[in-house]
Amino acid sequence: MPSHGPVVLIACDKFKGTLTAAEACSAVAAGVLDIWPQAKCVLRPMADGGEGTARVICEALGGEWRTVPVIGPRGETEMAGFAWLADQRTAVIEMSEASGLKLVPPAQRNPWRMNTAGTGELMRHAMALGAEKLVVGIGGSATNDGGSGMAWALGYQFLNEAGEPIVPVPANLLDVVRIVPPAGLRLPEIVAACDVTNPLLGREGATTVYGPQKGVAIDKIPLFEAALSHLADLVAHELGVDPRNEPGAGAAGGLGFGLMTFCKALTRPGFDVVAEVTGLEASTREADLVITGEGCLDGQTLHGKGPVCMADLARSFGKPSGAIGGMVEAHSITALRTRFDVVMAACTPETLHEALARPAEAVRAAINSNAASLNAVLERSPA
After folding, report:
1. Fewer CB near the last or first residue (10 Å), C or N of the chain?
2. For all residues of the chain together, what is the average pLDDT?
3. Which has the closest alpha carbon to 259: 196, 206, 194, 192?
4. Given this model, what pLDDT does residue 48 score?
5. Domain 53-268: which CATH number of 3.90.550.10, 1.20.58.340, 3.90.1510.10, 1.10.10.410
6. What are 348-367's pLDDT values in tens digits?
7. Residues 6+ apart with CB under 8 A from 243
8. Residue 283 CA neighbour count, 13 Å, CB half
9. Where do the structural domains in the chain lie, given as residue ranges?
10. Of 291, 299, 196, 302, whose CA–CA distance to 249 is shortest?
11. Model's pTM, two decimal places?
12. Residue among 375, 327, 313 nearest 16 (CA)
């Protein structure tokens, strides 16, 4: 235990529906200071490339949140935001802001006539500011258009047999016979922050795996597969690229494919992108203890989600880590303890109602109740 009080890096993701990432970090910090009044708490609200990533980066780096009108997934005007980091000439965009499932009421979810044009418009707005790099978080989509709408908004034309331009939505993709790139389009470096490895097509592809949650009926999956397969074939013929089987091509209804195809984007794990942009590695190196967390610690947490990535980063520097969840899945505790030195729950099923009413207090109390375990891992840690 450092004689001056430990340096505790607190890097929590949002507790969905109850606490933002920043609020969760603050609640953990309050509990840490209850245990060690002399501790230095370094708060780094975290995201892994999904919803909330742009705001987390914006707040962490003192960026500017820009809000602009775009075409939403249903063709209606939506106000969508992105983070502008002027000193880095970098924009951080979330496709869910412009083309996300959150913008479509459940009863109206059907991506057959929706596209990602709004995401392309966000990219254009960022480019107009002079962006030299775009980080595009791809997750939470309402769409399943292979990124064709995004390309259309950037100036690509999709032509039918009569040579007429058509709006690229899945319902129209089989009518496209030619794709014309825009003249003079100059794109900045584009990085797709992506935490899934699905290909575009097939049993593990965009439609089969993620389509039903967007409103795709099981018996309609073959129609979407045919539309996306035609798009991939056409792209291979017209543009000479074919990333349909690349890991992440199926992310966000095929937006991963579209970014690779039309924008020559690189794909990287979302956590790695956020860690790099926010300097998380340096903060980890200087910490004595790392505490991370999210709304629910469960089996999914172990498959590359933010908290386990944070624990892996801590371990790479020989730092102990604790994880707190609003809930902890009982049958996953043993597995979770192989990745985190301390696993903490803000509530149990019996106390859930009370915790939901006062989530920050529940998180703070959970840290306090695990004081002995946190002290123990610090004592074992090298000075």
Report:
1. C
2. 93
3. 192
4. 73
5. 3.90.1510.10
6. 889 999 999 999 999 999 99
7. 200, 249, 257, 260, 261
8. 21
9. 7-46+279-380, 53-268
10. 196
11. 0.82
12. 327
